[in-house]
Design brief:
Length: 284
């Protein structure tokens, strides 16, 4: 169709955006629409103005319609009843002695399907639970196991910075976070302080990682032995933002710029580079 346009839509339960097509020229940003996804009929919010076809080869599904007032009321009813559905699922799970922590429930707009999300340390045989839930809710049941990072994203909370958790506010896909990112920023390797609400390393460690890698390029590691102006020192602190470092030996301590350290200091740069390349990456 010549008038076919494309629109990005976000659903309330996720921070990801999905692209759909439409020939309805009246649809604009912030409008509510009804679309069909792999889970069924869903109610979503338009987050972009219409744009030309994106450069992708995958099939792009059409928007079914602009949401009506009845769709909005049904969506709100589903949300209000999902809490009770989650509690009922947890009760039935406990009766069957399944080690599951049910954290959410979500109806499709037409209530043909309900998805329960749960945490569990191991795989759960929930075949009997499916039969029980189907007899209670009279619709298709989907049980989905997630990890602790997904739970934090869904439940949300306040981080150590005092703001809403990044995963709940804007992160769509989780990046790999490593302890080396903390090392690059010269942070104390205190796992408790470096961990987020989910118990894994904080996602924000990645935000400035590239900048710190660039700033620390060709610099020796902390506690390295260097020779400066004829004396041997140990690097006891380093501030790559202020471009300064502290050198100490048994007799005294000095503060110099990193520029001076690079230009006048003597240390084994080849060994330094090799050690850096061999560092293990502990991904979470």
């Amino acid at each position: 169709m010549e008038n076919l346009k494309y629109i990005s839509i976000r659903f309330e339960t996720t921070n990801k955006t999905y692209t759909f097509s439409t020939d309805d020229e009246s649809i604009r940003m912030n409008d509510a629409v009804v679309v069909e996804t792999q889970r069924g009929l869903e109610y979503g919010l338009v987050v972009t103005e219409p744009f030309d076809k994106p450069n992708v080869n995958m099939e792009i599904k059409p928007i079914i319609r602009k949401a009506t007032e009845e769709d909005r009321r049904q969506f709100e009813r589903n949300k209000s009843e999902a809490g009770e559905a989650r509690k009922r699922c947890q009760i039935e799970s406990d009766k069957l002695d399944l080690q599951m922590n049910v954290i959410s429930a979500e109806y499709t707009l037409d209530r043909q399907k309900i998805t329960f999300t749960y945490l569990a340390d191991d795989r759960v045989d929930f075949r009997e639970l499916l039969k029980v839930l189907a007899s209670i809710f009279h619709c298709r049941i989907d049980l989905r196991q997630v990890g602790t990072r997904d739970k934090a994203k869904m439940v949300s909370g306040v981080g150590v910075c005092g703001r809403e958790l990044c995963c709940a506010r804007f992160i769509g896909d989780f990046d790999r976070i490593s302890i080396n990112m903390a090392k690059n920023q010269l942070l104390a390797l205190n796992v408790q302080k470096l961990s987020g609400q989910c118990g894994n390393l904080m996602c924000c460690l990645k935000y400035e990682d590239d900048a710190y890698k660039k700033l620390r390029k060709d610099l020796p590691k902390m506690n390295s032995q260097v020779e400066f102006e004829g004396e041997r020192y140990r690097i006891t602190s380093m501030n790559v933002i202020n471009q300064t470092c502290k050198l100490e030996n048994p007799d005294h301590a000095i503060f110099i710029s990193l520029k001076e350290l690079i230009e006048k200091g003597k240390y084994n740069k080849v060994k330094q580079k090799n050690e850096s390349e061999e560092e293990s990456v502990a991904e979470q």
